[in-house]
Amino acid sequence: MPIYPPATVGMPLSEVDTPCLILDLDAFERNLKRLHESLAGRNVMVRPHAKSHKCPQIALRQIALGAVGVCCQKVSEAEALVDGGVGDVLITNEIVGKPKLARLAALAKRARVAVCADHAGNVAALSAAAQQAGITLDVLVEINVGANRCGVEPGEPALTLAQKISASPHLRFAGLQAYQGTAQHLRTVAERRAAIEAAAACVSRTTALLDKAGIACGKVTGAGTGTYIFEASSSVYHEIQPGSYIFMDGDYARNDWTESGIPRFEHSLLVWTTVMSRTSTDRAIVDAGLKASSIDSGMPRVADAPGVEYIKASDEHGVLQLNGAAGYEVGDKLGLIPGHCDPTVNLYDQYVCIRKGRVEAIWPITARGALL
Amino acid sequence: MPIYPPATVGMPLSEVDTPCLILDLDAFERNLKRLHESLAGRNVMVRPHAKSHKCPQIALRQIALGAVGVCCQKVSEAEALVDGGVGDVLITNEIVGKPKLARLAALAKRARVAVCADHAGNVAALSAAAQQAGITLDVLVEINVGANRCGVEPGEPALTLAQKISASPHLRFAGLQAYQGTAQHLRTVAERRAAIEAAAACVSRTTALLDKAGIACGKVTGAGTGTYIFEASSSVYHEIQPGSYIFMDGDYARNDWTESGIPRFEHSLLVWTTVMSRTSTDRAIVDAGLKASSIDSGMPRVADAPGVEYIKASDEHGVLQLNGAAGYEVGDKLGLIPGHCDPTVNLYDQYVCIRKGRVEAIWPITARGALL
User: Fold this and answer.
1) List of residues 6+ apart from A325 with CB closer than 8 A
2) Which of A365, B3, B237, B272 has the fewest C-beta atoms under 10 angstroms from its C-beta?
3) Whole-number Å distance between alpha carbons of B321 and B278
4) CA distances (Å), origin A323, targets A306, A327, B164
5) Distance between alpha carbon A195 and the CA centroid of its chain, in Å?
């Protein structure tokens, strides 16, 4: 399911059925290039986060432009990416439980795979799984650099865990995961810059301890679309992990970017929807609701229609307040900019890729629903 | 995807991998029966809404207990249900656009199918599709009974549209769809009762006009889990459409039910999750975030742990504030009551059905992602 695809290659956009996810390939490709241009002259590796797109076709394009590999959050995402031809995946997350650890170790036999840890018992379980599979597994210590989610505290707790990893014969200590997630949507540039300066200080304190203990740190990796230029400009991060830059959702668009050094990425991802009811002068109902666009970070925005507001979502309906705008008759189609691209992408089975008003390709969202 | 299922039949719940959706079969079956018991002596048909479960196995159990058929919102949902053995489906929604109308008409050749309309142009398109397929299609007029979403206004506008349907040789006017969606989550019984009394008045005004014009109305259908007893007790509704009663989500649990006549349905649906990080005394991180539980109607609640709060969701993480609760060590598994069952179910490919602590069955969520 669904048996009927929303589009076929060559079809004009006007005929593409709704709701579906459309990708403006020109804007998408400009976003891909813009990221690398913004990093010119900076000595940093790019490892985009594939949890945003869940699609090998996109990961391979990112790698072709110079990315060293991709990140993901789940073993099943990593499996989908490796099956799709990606050779290097960092799981920026803790993986818990024997079935997942066995799959992780099996995957590390056929691709370069690394994983994070923040718990001694989990390190022991990772080591047992690696031994069972007959491999040596790369493990990074995740440190809490201000997001207060996963990660051991910087400094001594991180050193202790790194020592435990280093002492495990089937594991290799591969560096620090230092992602400041809550910094990404702080609205002002000054706030985001300050949050990353604080994160970098946490990292420095930790790497100094590792140095003193004679433990080679490998790499420091982290960063997202909201802040990556600050991590890249710090002297402590070796690798950045932006994900949403390829699509640019409504929530990121509310950030201020002025003189941040981060380019204006374009909205390349839209939910394509049809007006299905129009029984009031000021209200139009579209066929894209909660099951077509995640509202966790705010309602979707109507593309190219600043006066029109998407004010309410139910399962399969969205309510547009027209505020006097003309048009929006039953059958009209329009694009919505999702509030948050990652969970929205996870609702669909494919991207309908558009160029110059026609469907150029359909890319499967291979890791849609990859929760395990 | 996912290639690896979270469970196999016979497995103890403690081994079921996470995150996944678990269905407590005993509670689910009690909910199914309780609905019918609460309607004893009332002359009303039950047509549960399948947008909540998207699963033929569940629809067939509802029909076995006396439901006349099911409702759904999309043609692709209806196709999945008919393919799964359901013989009678009402699409409680407007269907717009030639490709969908052609599929709708084709489906009506192999099952009893009806659809709603609120627009004269759409009625003409429905008629053309029915003619093309060589069928007569049942069409209900949707009227706005207070939700201000789809539906023509009660009274004259409804009569005009019913006349247009009746005058279309390939359509049959099959009644009124009169669902008061915004009434479902009004918190007090008095508010919900008053909203349905107002809706019933809208219906009566419309059926009186239809009678006067000599148009047989067929049936009046509507209602949801929050109010169905009021529609069933009115003299104007012939059929009710509750959906969430089978699962009972967190949002519905916040309603007051005292002396409403609606039984206390049990939480039969849980997101099963694992503690994946525990680096602070007051915080545990679980592996179920936005892609495992929709937060549009509030955060999930931790089952059987009133002191513990799920306070924040990111893509693949949930933050539990422990408030002094013991346990919640890395690897521990627990159940979450979703805030809103419908969009949460739509994130998964299967129900892991549990009885007495073991997996009894795995039911596919066949219409997951059925947007078209």
Assistant:
1) A305, A307, A308
2) B3
3) 11
4) 10, 12, 30
5) 20
Q: pLDDT digit string (tens) for B285-317?
A: 999 999 999 999 999 999 999 899 999 999 999
Task: Say if the Cβ atoms of A346 and B291 lie within 8 Å.
Answer: yes
pLDDT score of B3 more than 80: no
d(CA B268, CA B276): 24
Q: Is B80 on the interface with A (CB under 8 A)?
A: yes
Window 203-242 of B: residues touching A by CB (8 A cutoff) are none
Contact A317, A285 (CB under 8 A): yes
**Mean pLDDT across chain B, nearest whole number?**
97
- Give the tens place of pLDDT for each residue, B112-124: 999 999 999 999 9
Test A369 with B346 for CB contact under 8 angstroms. Answer: no
Q: Are B42 and B337 in contact (CB under 8 A)?
A: no
Query: Between chains, do B291 and A317 touch, taking CB under 8 Å as contact?
Result: no
Paired with A115 in beta bridges are: A91, A139
pLDDT in tens, B133-185: 999 999 999 999 999 999 999 999 999 999 999 999 999 999 999 999 999 99
pLDDT of residue B4: 84
For B321, the closest chain A residue by CA position comes to A149
Distances (CA, A) of A314 to A289, B73, B94: 5, 12, 15
The string of pLDDT tens digits covering residues B270-280 is 999 999 999 99
Rg (CA), chain A: 22
What size, in residues, is chain B?
372
Mind telling me how many Å the CA of B277 is from chain A's nearest CA? 6
pLDDT digits 0-9 by tens, A300-340: 999 999 899 999 999 999 999 999 999 999 999 999 999 99
- Searching chain A, which residue's CA lies closest to the CA of residue B152? A279
Q: Does B73 touch chain A (CB under 8 A)?
A: yes
Does residue A2 have a pLDDT over 60?
Answer: no
Q: At what angle do helices A98-107 and A75-83 cross, to 10 degrees?
A: 30
In three-state secondary structure terms, A172 is strand
Q: Is the pLDDT of residue B232 over 60?
A: yes
> CA dist B44 to B47, B229, B231, B236, Å?
10, 10, 9, 10
- Name which of A47, A202, A175, A201 is nearest A116 in CA terms: A175
Angle (CA) B81-B177-B239 rounded to 5° is 70
> Rounded distance, CA A267 to CA A277, Å?
27
Q: Average pLDDT in the A272-285 region?
A: 97
For A128, the enclosing helix (H) or strand (E) is: helix A120-133
Whole-angstrom distance, CA of residue B245 vs CA of residue B248: 5
What is the tens place of the pLDDT at every residue in A215-260?
999 999 999 999 999 999 999 999 999 999 999 999 999 999 999 9
Task: Write down the residue that tokens 């789940």 correspond to.
Answer: A74
Q: What is the pTM of this model?
A: 0.97
